[in-house]
Hints:
The complex is a heterodimer of chains A (291) and B (177).
Chain A: H1 6-31, H2 36-73, H3 78-113, E1 119-127, E2 135-138, E3 151-154, E4 157-165, E5 170-174, E6 181-182, E7 184-186, E8 195-197, E9 203-205, E10 219-222, E11 234-242, E12 249-254, E13 263-267, H4 276-281
Antiparallel strand pairs in A: 1-2, 1-13, 2-5, 3-4, 3-13, 4-5, 6-8, 7-10, 8-9, 9-12, 10-11, 11-12
Helix pairs in contact in A: 2-3
Chain B: E1 5-7, E2 14-16, H1 23-41, H2 50-62, H3 65-81, H4 91-107, H5 115-140, H6 150-171
Antiparallel strand pairs in B: 1-2
Amino acid sequence: MVGLPSRHKSLALLAGVVLLQVLMLAVQVKRDSRGRLIRVWTITAVTPFEKGGAWGFGKVRGVWDHYFALQGTTRQNEALRAENDSLKLRISELESKASEADRLGALLTFKQAHEKVPMLMARVIGASAGTASRTVEIDRGERDGVRRNMGVITPDGAVGKIIEVYRDNAQVLLLTDKDGGAGAMLLESRSQGPVKGNGDPTLSMNYVATDEKVNVGDKVVTSGMDKIFPRDIPVGIVIEARPGTTFKQIKVKPAANLERLEEVIVLLTQEPVEFPSQTDTQGATPAAEKP
Amino acid sequence: MNDTYELRGSETHIEVHKFFPGAVAMVAILALVLQRILPVYLPKLEILDLPLLVTIYFGLSRRNPSTGLLLGMMMGLMQDSLSGPTVPIGEYGIAKTVIGYLASSIGSRLDTEHPLARFALVMSFFVVHQAILVLVRRVLLAEPEPWFNLHLAIAALVNAVLGVALFVAMDRLRRSS
């Protein structure tokens, strides 16, 4: 048999490997399967490192945020700083813990305030590995009762839905993903229209008739029509409303800070959830605006 | 056995580097884990593509197109798997396979040790990687996708700068001759 030069061999290998992946893509598109087996293997292999890494990062960030970052501001007082360093380190550790406790406390208060609604607190341990999707991974999975299509929220508002569940972890498709969204309505007028992700930090609200009155600043809440979120969970606030030919073009800023999620709540039910912000201020307040 | 050796095709003398055992696998896994963890704490770092940088680095250093494209394929497929079910498996796989092949092929022809050469190469590979991704999404998946925008230009620049620094750090993983 005539041997191929090594350059041709590698070219043939390239062609074969690319062709194989193109076929794999075609199979996934045709059968609407998403290669679950490969994903399970990869996630099972990577999750232990990820959990360890998330824990380590939390620790490092706590010290960095509250210790090293302060060094710049205290440069002029170096003598005093040396004396106070050990105390600052201690304070920073406590602050970091306090900040975490505040966040967890908010979630716990929320959970306790809705004892009748089964929900589960979860920690975000990873984000999407590429910019093609907006998903996060949480440290709760099948063993904790998490199932596909369960709603995920924070005390600020809707976050997304469970899209894939593994034994000890699950993936959440954020509202801002191109495939993400939720059934929604305007809080004041109760006009319904689904919100959809654009792959950027904002959402689009569709199918709201042009003659409907929509103002910038109007609150958007879930409608409950998607069978994922209960009604009246804050979705966001209208930041742009332009008239279209048939429907208005509405942009919504998410109520929950989807760019920075660390702890979330998985709704194990569709029972109505009452949000304190709605009774106090009659609507959603985007998390990003909060101090 | 020599840890590094030279390709002597025509007049050029280009070293082929070898690495400590397990270094490639460790760096690859670390890149994937960091790619997932970093944006949770620092959302702006979503702009980085660490698996791409690792693919380029080992491609340029090992200078073997077959291993380069296989490493690229592995990195890409794992990135697909970790990107959630909305990203079909093969999307990043195809792009990184091609980049792995190109990096190894270019690495075997040029000296790619100079920081400026590395900067230019990472930037070019980022653009090619993006072009392949868009091509796959548009042609194979029929998804609308912009070819290039300001965000991607910034991403190319940031990744190139990081690549230069990261490559110097990864040079330490090479076995000395």
